[in-house]
Amino acid sequence: VLLVDGKKLKLFHTMRRKTDNIELATCEQFLLHVDLNTRKSIEPVGEVASKLQEIFK
Known about the structure:
two-stranded antiparallel sheet, 1 helix
């Protein structure tokens, strides 16, 4: 987890070969928390917000 900032979340993944730890692939993703009822981006609340902060620490 690279960033937790309100409604924004940025992740970075790395895939490595188990035998020699060579980096095979990387992926950086930018996610936006969206309310499916209003179809607008919003800040996560409650348990979602607290879990994201736990992971980011």
